[in-house]
Amino acid sequence: MKYLSMITAVCSAAMFMVQAAPVPQDVLKAVDEVAVSNGLHPRQPLYLLEQFVPAAAGDAEQRKQLAGALMDAFASDKTSAAGRTIVAQHLAKVAGEAEIQTLRKMKGDAQTMADIRIALNEVAASSIKDAGKPAYLAELKSGIPIQQIAGLAGIAQFYPNDAAEISLQSINSKDSKVSSTAIRTLAKNNPSAFAVAIPAMSKERQLMALTVASEYGITEAGAVAAQLAQSDDADLKSAAVQTLGSIGSAECVAVLVSEGAEDALVQLNAKGVDKAILKIIGSGDAVAKERAINASVMRGIPDMEPVLLKAATDANSNVSAAALKFLGRSGSTAVYPQLTALLGSANSEEVASSLRRIIKRMDDKESCFKPLLKIYGKSGVTDTEQIAVLRCLSSIGGEEPLVLIAQAITSSNKEVNDAAVRALAQWPDPSVMEMLKKMVADKNLSVVHRTL
């Protein structure tokens, strides 16, 4: 659920961006929470900023507002050491001339100055002179986290060809801020090496890496994320599933279905995903079929009706019920005759429910009635079929369907009689009022039917 809430927050932010609205309050709150965090937790605001900041950089008004909020957090006395480093990394993506000038004038201890360099590295690279590779390597060997971070940033900025190898050496640093910077640097400079390195990382580093993979869209990490999605660790599983929703390929569909990650399945936009989902509906086990049906409808896969009609006859009642539910909700009126043929089946009640929904979308009520009349009047019609037809008639109304209802009310079969009374009680026009009054006054009727 926590990752679902992340998705909701990010989607909300995206909606605001399309409308060129101010930065959402959720994002501004995330800035404050990240500023006082330990750099690893809480994960939701960290993730939200990682998703929102790069996109906001392309909107002038949002960039300006977000840069101001980040600058305030950077300068606040309440901001933690780890929080300031993360704020600096985000500030580097959106800082304007005002923030750059403020940063250049700021003074502080060695750690603050290192964070200032991080914030300026990307937005004001032309104003920074290369200190030389040996100087950056010396910072990396210093054992002082703030200097190591500055060294990684300098190598990445001026010596990108060496950044991947050096980042790999710093990924498992005991200091989380150094490790986080190394992971990001590696991801930017060598996505393939980044993906290969993830399995050997500690849990906390893997969580960082999965977030970075989502943020940067590193598809090379898809296979590793698929493996972690089957982890026994709940945090890794959730993070990996979320990551697959962003970068997964069609090959990840089976894993996401097996994990019940329908939200992630809906997000996938890689080539062949729809085809992989439809394949599972046709040949997977019952649980997988049901999940794939849900995902297919939520994705809006085109031309689903033939697939759902076939699934509606599945031997597993959960699968057939899922297919019937969606056919009733969004199926075209063209499927009506095929669904009526399923009345009387094991899922007759679900079929009738779907038919009632479709009938409400049909203008020609006569065409609704004819297939039902054919079933009701056929030789050897079963009680189950009669009951299913009667349940549909209240959605149609009119004189001819009412004739069947009147006949069924006198039936000696209690279930058929009950279905007729209930249909009459839900009749869509006032033509049945006199009949209903007589039934209410009939002391021989059951209390339940008189109440209806």
Alpha-carbon Rg, integer: 31 Å
CATH topology of the domain at 363-452: Leucine-rich Repeat Variant
The multimeric state of the shown protein is: single chain
Count, helices = 29
Reported for the largest beta sheet, the result is: none
Number of strands: 0
Overview of the structural elements:
Helix 2 (about 25-35) runs parallel beside helix 4, helix 4 (about 60-75) packs antiparallel against helix 5 and helix 7 (about 110-125) packs parallel to helix 9. The longest helix has 17 residues, at about 1-20. By secondary structure, this protein is mainly alpha-helical. It contains 29 helices and no strands. The model is unreliable at about 1-20 and about 120-125 (pLDDT under 50). Helix content is about 70%, strand content about 0%. The protein has a domain at about 365-450: Leucine-rich Repeat Variant (Alpha Horseshoe). The protein is elongated and about 95 Å long.
